[in-house]
Amino acid sequence: MDAFFASVEQRDDPTLRGKPVAVGHAGPRGVVAAASYEARTFGVRSALPSVTALRRCPELIFVPPRFEVYRAVSAQVHVVFAEFTDLIQPLSLDEAYLDVTANKAGLPTAWATAKAIRARIRQETGLTASAGVSYNKFLAKLASDHRKPDGQFAVTPDMGPSWVEALPVAKFHGVGPVTARKMHALGIRTGADLKNKPLAWLAQHFGSSAQWYHDIARGIDERPVNPNRERKSSGSETTFERDLIDPAEIEAGVLRMADDVAGWCESRQMFGRTVTVKAKFADFRQVTRSRTLPQAVVDADVLRATSVELVRSLYPLALGIRLVGVTVSNFVAADERTGMPLFTR
Asked: UmuC domain: which residues (predicted)?
């Protein structure tokens, strides 16, 4: 989806259309969750501190996130996907891999399939989407960014290896800013530079990731589209407007995050045994505290109580806390929850 959160806000509020919009909070601790394309022309991007975003774009309009709306729209999009394939692997609310080899819709090409999917998304949601079409996941992902917004791009088998060679490694999916800086320091700036490095050399510098980098530099990715990819955890976090030292204020934030996670677990009937609380202090030092319970947490009150107990283990505080988060993991299979009550609140 194109600038998904911001596009939903512009769709639902016509006064925001054509204007630079950031989804997030404008306070001193705020962070941009998403930016409209109008805002991106000023260098406003997701994860940018709100104060920096406002310096770059003084006319920037902040709107608070409405994740329940974004989840509902995402569900609409997935209904569209299911018209064309049963092999859907979500990456996030606004992005997924689709394997259309079986040609469920009976269309002549994958290119035509992508166009039809994008048209149906626009029809159902009033929003635009972009698509990448290729013979593996790595190339399709790269291609999906190539003609944004509201476009599509195909990387065919005969062009794949040479197309990768010309791309900057910083654009490779799976090469984050830290790895990109390391590659640049080693003289690797393009796919061609990466391809020229022997596997043994890559292993020396990148360890277990060497084979992956060796393959993608050649346009090779054998990963299947996995519609049953196992979800490992669910979490929620918040950054406070100011550093908090008062336990009551800190615990109120923890309880809000616990309620967010409880709502996700309830909606999907997925319950875990391990509860983790994260805290980031004023000096940006981060700590976590975890507890694994004998059985899955199916009661919101248990999750709330456990989360508060975990954050209390950090007291007394030498520094204020700027961020807290709550995560549930170690999910239990449904057949192991026989006799357990449904999630109660």
From this structure: 1-176
- What is the DSSP code (8-state) at residue 329? E
12 annotated as ligand-binding = no
Nearest to 275 by CA among 316, 336, 338, 331: 331
pLDDT for 4-23, tens place per residue? 999 999 999 999 999 999 99
Burial pattern 230-241, b for ≥16 Cβ within 10 A else e, equals: eeeebbbbbbbe
| Active centre residues (catalytic) | 95
- List, in order, residues 6 or more apart from 237 with CB less than 8 Å away: 257, 278, 323, 324, 325, 326
Q: Which domains does the chain have, with CATH numbers?
A: 4-65 (3.40.1170.60), 233-336 (3.30.1490.100)
Pick from 75-79, 151-155, 224-228: least confident: 224-228
Q: Could you tell me the pTM of the whole model?
A: 0.73
The secondary structure element, H or E, covering residue 34 is strand 32-35
CB 311 within 8 A of CB 251: yes
